[in-house]
Queue: 2 jobs
Job 1
Amino acid sequence: MTGTAGSLLSGRAASPIMKLPLIDAIWRVRGEVLIDPALSPDEAFARLDPLLRTAGTTLNVAGSTLTYAKHNPAAQDKLATFTRGNMWVERVGAEAVLRFDLFSHALLLCFLAPLLFLGFAQLAIAINDWEKAGAEVSEKAKDDAKPKPVKKLNPVDEFLGAPAPEDPSKKKDKKKDEGRHSPDKGYFMAGLFALIYLVGRWLEPWLVRRRLRAALAGPPPAI
């Protein structure tokens, strides 16, 4: 039973869709930060502990690798955008680097939101076309129908200046856009979320590097 579950999980982890670089880059951020070569992995993680150990965050350190996961992070959490990730220390010649591999559900949602709102905009256009076609059929049926006779005022009402009855064969002027479903809001929201995603995709990795660099350069935690 355990072997079967393990094979299923390994098969799921090896899914080719999740390994496509373009799809992976949507919500995944990788990078590295130079650290003091004299720092051991435990010492580096100890300096990162105040940054990572926030409400709703679970940490796990195994050797030179740190893994974390966040559940409903608070807005004050400096890493709230990246809900899970891995960090590890590597030696590169005489130097040492902290590498990170982080995942952001917020970036993924901002990437998908424009597609959703574009779908709403296209739906509004389709509804407008359907209503327009129905209105044209209805107007054509009215035009083909036998015209109703125009009522005439009696001489007394006409003498008193009463308005003449409306001609039923004449179409009433209506606002063309009344009752229509505008796709403009959908296009606006799609553009807004696309802008948020592009800014966040550049800004958030930069902020992560800055915060990690500041935490690692700080004084060692008190014992």
Job 2
Amino acid sequence: MRIIGIEIPDNERSEIGLTRIFGIGKTNVKSLAKLANVNLDTRIKDLSRDDIGNIMKALETFKIEGDLKREIRENIERLKAIKSYRGIRHIVGLPARGQRTKTNSRTRKGKRKTIGSLTKEAWAKIEAQQKAASNTENK
């Protein structure tokens, strides 16, 4: 079943299925169900057209999907523009919420890069590249 362009599996309970919409979590599902007068224990496939219509109308009161993503992106751009601490952390690509970076934070920092000493294989590779570059310059 598709609700506002999001595919929701038919066999899920509506309480779980509606959380697939970006910006709708477990807390918002309960208030959404109250607005739409829908039972949260019913399966998505068992919802009537009227229930789905009520859900669609109730979703208009929430900021979801594209609007919410745009707002988040604009907030981050504003932090970058005013050069706040959090904005600088976003620019540099480091965690912005106080996490430690000596260890962990691999998600933000990316794959480890060796800075110290190199292995013999790495030195041999670098020397081979330098020789090839000097040979092409001499010709």
